[in-house]
Amino acid sequence: MVPFGYEVLYLGFIWDLQACTVTIPNQKKEKYLMTIKEWSAHLTHVLEDVQKLHRKLLHASLMATMGHAYLTNLKAMLSTFNNHPFVPHHAPRDTALDLQWWTRILNLPILSKQIPGPKQLVDTQGFSDVSSGVRVAITIGNCW
After folding, report:
1. How far, in Å, are 68, 90, 91, 94, 135 from residue 105 at the CA level?
2. Which of 25, 29, 134, 141 has the highest local Cβ count within 10 Å?
3. What is the pLDDT of residues 48-93, one digit of tens each?
4. Mean pLDDT of 95-119
5. pLDDT digits (tens, 9 = 90+) for 3-17
6. 57 Cβ neighbours under 8 A, 6+ residues apart
7. What is the largest CA-CA distance in the chain?
8. How far apart are CA 112 and CA 25, in angstroms?
């Protein structure tokens, strides 16, 4: 049970309802940085190592949305284990560069996003349809 407050820890993030922000706590950033440091100390990794690092950075990418582009090498590595999760693998070539990017981002003093406020919806009357062939139809208002 979490007592009501304007600042609450939920899903691993600090939700500040007065400032309308969601932030990764410093403890979590430090934990993620330590995981990157431990990963970088080894040349090869088993599946569980890759999953742990990927899971943490995927979580952090909710605040650093550009981070999705820096997860592709880890994603590619996940698919290389097939039925051999305990056989150590080398990381793809540019993984170290990706982890440098993540280290720089996680060392920022504050890593947060604004909670979006209410938006006025505009109905553009936009529709699309795709046939089983290669045809695509898009209409917006009266335009086809």
Report:
1. 13, 24, 21, 17, 42
2. 29
3. 999 999 999 999 999 999 999 999 999 999 999 999 999 999 999 9
4. 95
5. 778 999 999 999 999
6. 32, 67, 70, 71, 74, 102
7. 60
8. 9
